[in-house]
Amino acid sequence: MLPAEQQPDWRDHAAYAAARRTLMRAAPLALPTEIAELRGQLAAVAAGRARLLQAGDCAESLAEQTPRHIDDKISALDALGDLMAARTGQDVVRVGRIGGQFAKPRSAATEQYGGSELPSFRGHMVNSEEPSPEARQHDPRRMVHAYGAAARVADHLREVRHQRAAAGDPPAASGPWTSHEALVVDYEGPLVRSTPDGREYLASTHLPWIGERTRQPDSAHVEMLAAVQNPVACKIGPGAGPAEVVRLCGRLDPERSPGRLTLILRLGRTRAAEVMPGIVDAVRNAGHPVIWAVDPMHGNTERTPGGIKTRHLRHIAEEAAVFLQVLERHGAHPGGLHLETAATDVTECLGAGVRGERALNRRYTTLCDPRLNPEQAHELIRMLFRP
């Protein structure tokens, strides 16, 4: 059995086997025809004819999968995608961090709360954010609850796509599509399905990605996504060397197929200019037609003097600008932008009207990392892309 980092500790739980059986029998959330359509749209991004916007919650809440919440998230994603299309002059493929982003990797297994040490919150698929020993226990029954919530999202988004297709919307704007980090192997594995011709696809989402903490080339995560037909993505942090990234590309995109693989660079504003050129050159020389995307948020997280986790819009824009500049110098298409955004006017990141630590406390509601509010996300697009 291949190693898998960041996994829940629940295999001795009495409900573990039953939860996995339920997932094995469950209907697919993403269909092969939808996956093929998205992969075709992403091939246009890889060829330089379109852009990819991937945005949404850091960690989804199981309580926020109602039609109203889903519509609010779709509206926020569309507004941002429309602005990006207007500023770049290209169609924008809209992919939400939605319908499955219920699990989070953490840097430490435990955390301090009120003088007590508790298991870290790992997303609603695993445990609760409530600060008690009971709530923080890893419970495999939560996988079934997460599937149910994701199914409601998938059905709602499918109806939206059908309505847009009937209205004659451009194909690249016919999303939104679902995506999440394929982190919990016990959830993702039972949701692998086969087409009539024997090809495997991951039915939990349209576009799964592998995170920075789980991208080891010989890991269970890479093995799983290497075997499926979905378009896939992989996050790349500043510690990844060019040879390692090329090896990952070889595992995830052996056929060098446009639209198959997106590399999401999350390097931090102080490292991006140093690290990016070697990776871009190595991947290009290896012949992989990847989509280059930037996650300018995760490498720029900081804490205020009072201990509040935040990000500064100015720092986010700095890293994204370096991403654009480096790819332009190398003659490559800066195809993708990956953001953690809220659909409501949260105050979790600094900038664009949120000034100072006191302002952060007004509406700080994220379950995990700080998100841009719509005003900040729109300001970022305006800062990066000049019409």
Task: Explain what this protein looks like in three dimensions.
There is one protein chain. This protein has 387 residues and is an alpha/beta fold. The protein has one domain (16-384): Aldolase class I (TIM Barrel). The chain has helices at 16-25, 32-46, 67-88, 141-166, 185-188, 220-226, 242-252, 272-285, 313-329, 357-360, 374-384, and strands spanning 50-56, 91-97, 110-113, 116-119, 177-181, 192-194, 200-202, 207-210, 232-236, 261-265, 291-294, 301-303, 309-311, 336-340. A hairpin with a 5-residue loop joins β6 (192-194) and β7. α8 (272-285) packs parallel to α9 (313-329). The termini are far apart.
Name the shape in a single word: globular
Helix content: 25-40%
Q: What is the strand tally?
A: 14
- β-sheet strand percentage: 15-25%
Pick out the low-confidence regions.
Answer: none
Please work out how many helical segments DSSP would assign. 11
Remind me, CATH topology?
TIM Barrel
Distance between the termini: 51 Å
Q: What is the CATH top level name?
A: Alpha Beta
